[in-house]
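Q: Start with the shorter request: fold the first protein.
A: Done. Sequence, then structure:
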Amino acid sequence: MTRMPPATEWSPTSWSARPAEQQPTYRDPAQLARVVAELGRLPPVVVSWEVDALKRQIAEAQRGERFLLQGGDCAETFADCESGQIAASSRSCCR
């Protein structure tokens, strides 16, 4: 099993130092670098306060104070990964 680094060792590029067991081979390293740079400019998929809230809610479920039902379509495209679209999607699915 691969040891996970302490949170203090994380950085946006720390993933590249990790072993990749099933990594595709990219024919154009320059294009890969451009895509990674573009993805780095996009907003986060999940913001920190949502993570904190989820942790609290999961802890409540562990104590029997809340019921947890997990679901989702996982069908987002990179084109949909912009803050306005994410906010609209969150509002429509969580009413």
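Q: Next, the second protein, separately.
A: Sequence, then structure:
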Amino acid sequence: MPPRVRPPVWLWFNLLSLDAPVIALVWQNFLSRCYPTEIHATGRAVLGLTVWAIYLADRILDVRLPATALESIRHRFYRRHRAFVQTLLLVVVCVDAAVTRLWLRPAVLENGLLLTGGVLAYLAIFPLTRRGAIAWKKPLAALLFTAGTFLIAWTGAGHPVAQLVWPATAFCALCLGNLLMIERWSQGTAPEIYGIPRRWICLLCLLAILAFARSSSWFAAIIFSAVGLCFLARWDRKISGDARCVLADALLLTPLLFR
């Protein structure tokens, strides 16, 4: 980020990594309506704070290495304001821990501890590898994000596998498509990432259309987001790099179109 140049207002939400927790909360709320689940305010708060903390920590770890020529504006922001972000992360973690300890339901907390172990392993292992060296970083990130979003519904479901495995699979595929697109952009104009061609995004759309046979608003929202990502992948070069990332995340807010 050049000196004395402030990022545009519309980009601040993305720079502070607030987009991920908002997406998680939107889909968690949508899930509770599509597959009736009791979600208390505490569960919503813990999900939002936890996702925010993970993304803040991940960005801090990303900028531990020297900057590259293709570094995104978000990573330059974290590099320049590392002390502020570290303080913010500490505050978020402390508030999250307090809310979890005092008010989160024991059953949710028990399952959440298992997920926390996976997150800590993710944050500990990948910083030891070279950037882009492990092809399954993004799939694992999508899986953890999905697990967090589904945690409360999974805990409260009578038959979680039968009820939620396909909704979770479709959502995980959608999140993976979003992450792969953003990763490809961060690496420049290369047509492939991890050997997967751009047309792979279209396969996400096909997956969503097949899932739509289950006649659920959940899968309809998956379709809308997948189609949006396909169009964005097709015309991404006509949009600025910063705007592309914001749009890619905004396209995951399709549950807001359903009541």
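Q: Describe the second briefly.
A: Residues 160-186 form the longest helix (27 residues). Confidence is low (pLDDT under 50) at residues 189-197.
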